[in-house]
Specification:
Blueprint lengths: L8 E5 L2 E6 L13 E9 L2 E8 L10 E7 L15 E5 L10 E10 L2 E9 L6 E7 L6 E2 L20 E9 L2 E8 L14 E5 L9 E4 L2 E4 L17 E5 L4 E6 L5 E8 L5 E4 L2 E4 L4 E7 L15 E11 L6 E11 L88 H21 L5
Parallel strand pairs: 1-19, 3-21
Antiparallel strand pairs: 2-23, 3-4, 4-5, 5-6, 7-8, 8-9, 9-10, 11-12, 12-13, 13-14, 14-15, 16-17, 17-18, 18-20, 21-22, 22-23
Length: 447
């Protein structure tokens, strides 16, 4: 399943898979001509999803990045507060590198800022990779006017797609990025499949970039930048599992399942765990549900070694570009021995004073006079025969309990979507046919 660009150190410890979650129904609505390549983060009780589509409401004909959210992984996913998903990022409509198409989003949040890595093209040419940032994940600004990654043009695999399909993870102060380059030296010669890995503390990868090679991480050079592929795949997504101490790549090798490949934290040629599979056919994707920094979501029960892996992907083609995003998943369980923390005993304090040899004080008073035999006063009352009444009636609460706080409303998030008109529906149908031709021309991702 992995490329033979360098010898892999395979440990391949088997994992158990449990709690399978079959395909849900379609997650989104709207009039987009197709939808695929989602990126999903779980944040503040909401699943936030960005994905690729062509929406007839877009200002620029071409691929758009849409946004939708839901409190439930099985949807429905809507714009904040309801309604059709929103277009949040699209081509500029000019001759720039992303003038026509913006697609294959990957979103990671670092120190309060969202970063969007995306594939881009103009005039249906080769794909390159750009980056944008946002304070809320809805309104984006491009960080640079040029692509941050372009095709290496190191070999001709017969696939002219280029460099795209990025997926980002943030770990220990660095951005980790995998991406496709069908022209890279380490791509599969038969079709250009492969995933190349870079890392840098700079989100634009303009400085301090290291790349994975057959000899591990090395400083970037044009020659080594695409020499070693970590997975034979198109359209992959990854996250980091702190529980398993490894990266997890979700990709496709067999038509009837999604493959999960596990890579070592520092040496991506190591495979600490054997591959696992999530059954069920898919067309393109998938995106792994992750925390905002693209780490694995914790198991609700806190069980040692258990990691829930939920993915979303396009599930239907029917002769047209991918469509109908669905959710499915499994739990992977690793044979990990977890240690129960031992309480640290609190040390007793040493006495602060040394004992003295002599008593500290002499008695200050002389003995008092002889005790008197008679009491000073006579009792003033006769004892009562009956006990006094003691009343302790129960008390009803005086106020109703304070109601639990309601979930944070999504109504304060901007809703920039607009309803479809009859004319746009007709236009959307025409775009489906046009998108099919366009998609076949530019994706080039059939393994």
């Amino acid at each position: 399943m992995l490329t033979a660009a360098g010898p892999a150190i395979a440990q391949d410890v088997p994992l158990t898979t449990e709690n399978p979650r079959p395909n849900s129904g379609p997650l989104t609505g709207g009039d987009a001509a197709y939808e695929y390549a989602p990126t999903i983060i779980a944040e503040n009780g909401v699943y936030r999803m960005w994905y690729c589509a062509q929406d007839p409401q877009g200002a620029v004909p071409g691929d758009d990045i849409l946004y939708a959210e839901s409190p439930n992984l099985d949807g429905p996913f809507t714009a904040p507060g309801g309604g059709d998903p929103l277009i949040v990022f699209e081509g500029r409509g000019d001759a720039s590198f992303d003038g026509q198409h913006a697609c294959d989003p990957s979103v990671v949040k670092v120190d309060g800022t969202y970063y969007l890595y995306y594939g881009a093209a103009v005039n249906d040419g080769v794909t390159t990779i750009g980056v944008a940032r946002s304070a809320d994940g809805l309104s984006w600004e491009r960080m640079v006017d040029q692509p941050i990654i372009t095709p290496a043009n190191q070999q001709d695999t017969g696939n002219g797609y280029g460099a795209g399909q990025p997926s980002a993870v943030y770990l220990d102060g660095q951005f980790y990025l995998i991406f496709t380059d069908t022209t890279g030296a380490g791509a599969l010669p038969s079709n250009g499949a492969g995933q190349f890995a870079w890392r840098s503390s700079d989100p634009t990868f303009a400085t301090g970039t290291e790349v994975v090679t057959a000899d591990g991480w090395q400083p970037f050079t044009p020659e080594n930048s695409r020499g070693f592929s970590v997975a034979n795949a198109f359209s992959a997504d990854w996250q980091y599992s702190d529980e398993l101490e490894s990266f997890v790549i979700a990709h496709n090798n067999d038509a009837g399942s999604t493959t999960l490949t596990f890579l070592g934290t520092e040496n991506l040629a190591e495979h600490p765990w054997a591959p696992a599979t999530i059954e069920g056919p898919w067309v393109e994707g998938p995106g792994i549900v992750s925390t905002p920094d693209k780490h694995a979501v914790d198991d609700d029960g806190g069980e040692c070694g258990r990691v829930p892996v939920d993915i979303m992907h396009a599930s239907r083609a029917d002769g047209v570009p991918p469509q109908d995003l669905v959710h499915k998943g499994i739990d992977v369980v690793a044979p990990i021995e977890c240690e129960t923390p031992t309480p640290t005993p609190t040390p007793t304090e040493d006495p602060t004073d040394e004992p003295t040899d002599e008593p500290t004080e002499d008695p200050t008073d002389e003995p008092t006079d002889e005790p008197t035999d008679e009491p000073s006063e006579s009792p003033t009352q006769e004892p009562t025969d009956e006990p006094s009444e003691s009343s302790t009636p129960s008390q009803e609460p005086t106020e109703d309990p304070t109601p639990s706080p309601s979930p944070t409303s999504d109504d304060d998030l901007p809703d920039t979507g607009a309803g479809s008109t009859g004319v746009l529906v007709t236009l959307g149908a025409a775009l489906v046919a046009g998108a099919a031709l366009l998609y076949r021309f530019r994706r080039g991702t059939v393994a």
